[in-house]
C-alpha cells in the first residue's frame, strides 16, 4: 500500500515588496512552518514557527486537491517574458510521492491552479504560507 506521506515536501515563499520568507517542510511525518520577517522592516530578527501533524484524512483531501488542480503537470519554471522585470513574490514547490513529482518555481507568472494548490496547502498545514510575517504575527495576537 502506498504511503499517505510524501517522500519529499518543501515549499518556500519569498515576499519581494515586504521582504522576508516562509518555508514549509515535511520532516519525520510533521509539517514544520517557519516565517521570518525581513530585517529592514524589523528592529530585530523575528520568527514564527508552527509544527503540525495532519491526520490521514487531511492528507487524502490534500492529494485529491493536487490531482484535481493538475499540480503534477505544472511546468518547471514560470517566468515573465525575457527583458520584462517585475517585482513579484517568488515561490518554489518540491513534492515527491509514490512516483509522482512536481518541482516548480514561479516569478510573477503562475500556473492557472496556483490558488487551488495554496488553499489545499493551507487546509493541510493550518497556516497560509502566502501571508507575510507581519500579517501572521498580527493574527496570532488577536
Q: Could you characterize what this model shows?
A:
- The chain is of the alpha+beta class and 142 residues long.
- The protein has one domain: 2-Layer Sandwich (Mago nashi protein).
- Helices cover 25% and strands 32% of the residues.
- It is built from three helices and seven strands.
- Strands 4-3-2-1-6-7-5 form a seven-stranded mixed β-sheet, covered by helices on one side.
- Helix 1 runs antiparallel to helix 2.
- It is globular.
- The model has no long low-confidence stretch (mean pLDDT 88).
The tally of beta strands, per DSSP, is 7
* Strand arrangement, major sheet: 4-3-2-1-6-7-5
CATH T-level topology: Mago nashi protein
Low-confidence stretches: none
Structural class comes to alpha+beta
Topology:
Elements: E1 8-14, E2 21-27, E3 30-36, E4 47-52, H1 56-69, E5 77-78, E6 90-97, E7 100-107, H2 114-125, H3 133-141
Parallel strand pairs: 5-7
Antiparallel strand pairs: 1-2, 1-6, 2-3, 3-4, 6-7
Helix pairs in contact: 1-2
Key traits:
seven-stranded mixed sheet; globular; 25% helix; Mago nashi protein; 142 residues; 3 helices; alpha+beta
In short:
The protein is an alpha+beta fold and 142 residues long.
Amino acid at each position: 500500500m502506498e504511503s499517505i506521506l510524501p517522500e519529499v515536501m518543501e515549499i518556500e515563499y519569498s515576499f519581494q515588496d515586504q521582504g522576508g520568507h516562509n518555508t514549509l517542510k515535511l520532516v519525520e511525518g510533521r509539517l514544520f512552518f517557519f516565517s521570518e520577517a525581513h530585517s529592514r522592516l524589523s528592529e530585530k530578527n523575528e520568527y514564527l514557527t508552527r509544527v503540525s501533524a495532519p491526520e490521514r484524512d487531511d492528507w487524502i483531501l490534500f492529494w485529491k486537491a493536487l490531482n484535481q488542480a493538475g499540480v503534477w503537470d505544472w511546468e518547471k519554471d514560470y517566468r515573465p517574458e525575457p527583458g520584462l522585470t517585475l517585482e513579484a513574490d517568488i515561490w518554489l514547490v518540491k513534492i515527491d510521492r509514490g512516483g509522482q513529482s512536481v518541482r516548480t518555481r514561479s516569478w510573477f507568472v503562475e500556473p492557472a491552479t496556483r490558488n487551488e494548490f495554496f488553499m489545499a496547502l493551507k487546509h493541510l498545514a493550518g497556516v497560509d504560507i502566502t501571508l507575510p510575517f507581519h500579517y501572521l504575527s498580527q493574527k496570532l495576537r488577536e
